[in-house]
């Protein structure tokens, strides 16, 4: 078992996660869904509620997004906006990966991103339906 500490950019949110081995042995996902490509996040997964928060958990802001019939709560620091990760929702029938939480590896301390086993995850079409993102095409010409 290996424990890692993490925090948001401003330090309001502080937590630890414990993984069955080194993070460098875990499959880390890089999702191409419409949210993750904007956040630039990388995820490690573990059972929901396993992260131990030392500060800021109650302050986290959430954005709930659905892909097809599945839903996840994406969580952010209210001060600096750091994307901390996501949690599955209740009831589990509508949850994306029921009983699982994904932590944004980029929020963990002292991790060498270049040494991670990063695997692509097809979130763009692989979650049972596409999510239409509104697109701004620039100011209209006058």
Automatic annotation (TrEMBL):
**Which SUPFAM superfamilies does the record match to this protein?**
Mss4-like
Q: Which residues form the CENP-V/GFA domain?
A: 4-122
What's in the keyword line of the UniProt record? Metal-binding, Zinc
Can you name one GO molecular function term for this protein?
Answer: metal ion binding
InterPro entries from the UniProt entry? CENP-V-like (IPR052355), CENP-V/GFA (IPR006913), Mss4-like_sf (IPR011057)
- UniProt cross-references to PROSITE patterns, sorted A to Z: CENP_V_GFA
For the keyword Mitochondrion, the answer is no
Q: Which domain of life is it from?
A: Eukaryota
| Family, similarity comment | Belongs to the Gfa family.
Which named protein is this?
Mss4-like protein
Q: Which organism is it from?
A: Rhodocollybia butyracea
